[in-house]
Amino acid sequence: MADIRKLEKELWDAADELRANSKLTSQQYCMPVLGLIFLRYAWGRFKRADAEIEAERAAKTGRKPPKSPDDYKAKGAMFIPEESRYDYLLNMPEGTRIGWAVNNAMTAIASSNPSLAGVLPDTYTEIGDELLTNVIRIFNNPALDEEGDDIIGRIYEYFLGKFAPAVASDDGVFFTPKSLVRMIMNVIEPERGTMLDPACGSGGMFVSASDYVRDEGGNPSNSLMFYGQEKVDYNAKLCLMNMAVHGMSGHIKSGDAANSFYNDAHGLDGKCDYVAANPPFNVDKVKHAQAVEAGRLPLGVPKENKKKEVSASGANYLWINYFYSYLKNTGRAGFVMASSATDSNAERAQRRKLVETGHVDVMLYVGNNFFYTKSLPCTLWFFDKGKPEALKDKVLFIDAQRYHTAVSTTLNEWTPWQLKNLSAIVWLYRGETGKYLDLIEAYKDRAAELAALFTGDAAEKLLSLGGVEDFVAANEAMLAAIEAQKASTKAEVEALPKREQKKRREALAEVTAQMESAAIEMGEAVWLVEKFGEGEYADVPGLCKVGSRADIQGDQPAEMSSWSLTPGAYVGVPPVEDDGVDFHERMAEIQKELVELQAQSNDLIATITRNFKELGL
Q1: What confidence score (pLDDT) does residue 169 get?
Q2: Hey, which of 208, 230, 241, 507 would disulfide with 181, CB 3.0 to 4.6 Å?
Q3: Beta strands 286-287 and 309-310: pairing type?
Q4: For the whole model, what pTM was predicted?
């Protein structure tokens, strides 16, 4: 994440050069800049896929057919014609009409990838060849070769915030962090069928679904059909670009006809295997009559206010209705929603109807500082119309507000291991113990790799993990080894001549940092096995609880209950750790100390008063 933020600043500095040194307006240079990032990112993925294909072909004997675009698509990349490859543009001789060359590169890509027809920018001749050449060189950043992230969407939001801060958060629209999107995929587990995102933005849900399928050994091009609706044409273009970069294609509609409040643009009501979305939160000014006429409201019609509109909380429930309605009778949905929606009073009748379907699967509270430009908390909602009968009237509540990694003072995320641990709670709730045990084996395999960073007791324990006690003991041994390493580093550095100390300290600090990172990884294993042992679900105070319909209704009659789906209302608070201090004994000591301090204070005040009197004041 820190590297991504550094990359954003570097790319923005390059983009800002266009603003400072050209006659283009923000609107005019925004898309060309993102087009160049698209081109560079696409080239990085193309290179990696090409190397993999070459390696596979080298291992085969006999006839080798020419590489085809489908070969690259299977690797999650887009085929790029030679004249569109970034190195081709980088190495063009001085004096070349580079603006024309970039326009031609975009045209060639669109010809090879029909989904991009009319999407890519073609105004590079307006920038000026010298300036454009400089920006192309600056954008040749190796960080754009990295995989496993929605780079286009992430940088887009950063740039949008720079171009027009008021637009970046307008109508509750903001980029969905990768870890939240991946958590949604881990729970809905897309495999085969139709996926819809009716608020698709830059397409991050589709990219993550595709990554999930590949991680499971599948080919998303052969197993999933992607459909998206996006009111803003600009965002829809970015979605198509983002999907193309990852070797994907989809049916994306934009403009007024794709406004999900008023249109089912693809006619998919009741036909989706998967729905995944981060819709705009708390939208007001939705026309009530038009929204009701558009249908897809199986949970009930929202209330109409004096302006003949739907309130912000009612608009949230419009989305919830849509996500539920779009699913076929075995479908799953996962989406981000404002946390206020879990217990908003005005919508409790709709929430009751939803709970009574038995299709609410998981409710996961996230907490603050996960969003890129917002600090608001949210909740991940999950529906499953194909739940087994044993889980039909049960809901898994997870409160993860205390479980995350702080990237900075204003940004949190879930690491890959934390994502796996949260997913493991869902697996155990569903009775999928095998997946949990596979994760424990993955931790053991990782421990064997990390053992190379340690010696003695820590290394031995990492190589012989068994049950819960072994994980705890290994982690404690790692922490002890780190403290020993720090002490050793200090002694070794101080024994050296001063001119050699800095270099040696930095080298040893790198070793210590690797050991600390390893301890953090194994700490995640301890976090998991201490709670769920060998693989049996249990409610954990402050973290998770399986609630029944009766729990959700509570002691109130059905018509009076709030039917709250707020995870914190069910999981409670974590137990307070015993610090070994007797509360009553310590309070007595504090009271005694306070009396003594008060007496000292009184004596001091009396002395000061006496001194003033002696001075005649």
Answers
A1: 41
A2: 208
A3: antiparallel
A4: 0.84
